[in-house]
Amino acid sequence: MSQPDADAILIPIAAAMDPSPAPAPAPAPAPVPAPTVVEWPEGGALTRDWVAGLASTLDWCSRHLPADRLPAVLPPALVQRLVLAAAAILHREPNLVRVDPRPGQAVVVVGDVHGQLHDVIFLLRDAGFPSEDRIFVFNGDYVDRGAWGLETFLLLLAWKVLLPNCVFLLRGNHESKYCTSVYGFEKEVMTKYKDQGPQIYRKFLRCFEDLPLATIIAGCVYTAHGGIFRGTIVVPSKKSKKGKKGHKYKANFTVDLTSMKLGSLDELLKARRTVLDPPWEGSNLIPGDVLWSDPSLQMGLSPNKERGIGLLWGPDITQQFLRTNHLKVQTRETSDTIS
Q1: pTM
Q2: Which GO terms describe its molecular function (predicted)?
Q3: Does 4 reside within a domain?
Q4: How large is the angle between the packed helices 48-64 and 149-162, nearest 10 degrees?
Q5: Spatial distance between the Cα atoms of 194 and 250, rounded to a whole number of angstroms
Q6: Is a pLDDT exceeding 60 seen at residue 10?
Q7: Rounded to whole angstroms, how far apart are CA atoms 99 and 42?
């Protein structure tokens, strides 16, 4: 049997005989106190302090509380009240919101946040909170993929209720029943609120329907989650057979879905946005275009076959859209500051 290496024996013995004291263990961090149950503010009106407290509470819960314990701090009744209060404001806004900052007032455009609560809290703190000096336009996709879609959207809804003229929330393609059932938000709500989950989830879906589709900032910047949209081409159909003498028949009009032309802002304003899942066929195609369309290097308008909904539009269409509507910039799914 071979002898063990001398160094292998001497090193641990020397270490054991070292008279120097071992370093003292680092003190354990002080426990973070749990927040109290969030209650609607007395008097009914939200304040900056209340919204700041909500942000702090949501941050703490996301770091220290199991998901299914959230209702102990954020009761279902409060969640529903906040969603309904924000939805009432959003419902009154048009499909196309005009954001007109005063001279020197900055506008921050924020793209997809996808349930990243900590990123949103950092962004608001770093860019400067919404105020009379700073407007925020959030360009959709608040939920799905991230673990805190519910908390993220609630925080932004609170800011909307507090400062409706300084915070604008647009709809993204994930604010739909289909996407939230596939990409995680529905499961998130059910996990956190269990028996109350279906009712709360329906309130969120109803709120999604009320989100506007696009903004024009400072009269020159068009912002939408997807982008450009087609117009409705109406053609007269064949006249019906003649009726009794003296009866006049008006020509019937139908929508031509085989042709494509660039849509107008007036058509965007008249589109029906209160649909959970924008249709990919039929006459109400503008919401799906605005939410799902993508830019392309190829000229013209064409169906977005990869997505199965919306359009692909080329550089020539971008130029035509900007020139026709006297705009300078078209943005989508992005984050930027405009001053």
Answers
A1: 0.84
A2: metal ion binding; protein serine/threonine phosphatase activity
A3: no
A4: 180
A5: 56
A6: no
A7: 31
Environment class of 101 (CB within 10 Å of its CB; exposed 0-12, middle 13-18, buried 19+): middle
Q: Are 149 and 184 in contact (CB under 8 A)?
A: yes
How remote is the C-alpha of 93 from its chain's centroid?
A: 16
Q: What is the DSSP string of 121-186?
A: HHHHHHH--SBTTEEEEE-S--SSSSTTHHHHHHHHHHHHHH-TTTEEE---TTSSHHHHHHSSHH
Report the b/e string of 261-284 with b at 16+ CB within 10 A.
Answer: ebbebeebeebebeeeebeeeeee
* Whether residue 208 sits in one domain with residue 67: yes
Q: Which domain holds residue 273?
A: 226-233+260-332
Do 322 and 216 belong together in one domain?
no
Beta-ladder partners of 131: 134
Structural domains counted in the chain? 2
Tell me the pLDDT band of 196, cut-offs 50, 70 and 90. very high
Q: What is the pLDDT of residue 333?
A: 73
Q: Are residues 177 and 63 part of one domain? A: yes
Per-residue pLDDT tens digits for 309-321: 999 999 999 999 9
Active site residue 326: no
Return the pLDDT at 233. 67
List, for residues 124-167, the tens digit of each pLDDT value.
Answer: 999 999 999 999 999 999 999 999 999 999 999 999 999 999 99
Give the active site residue among 91, 114, 118, 174.
174
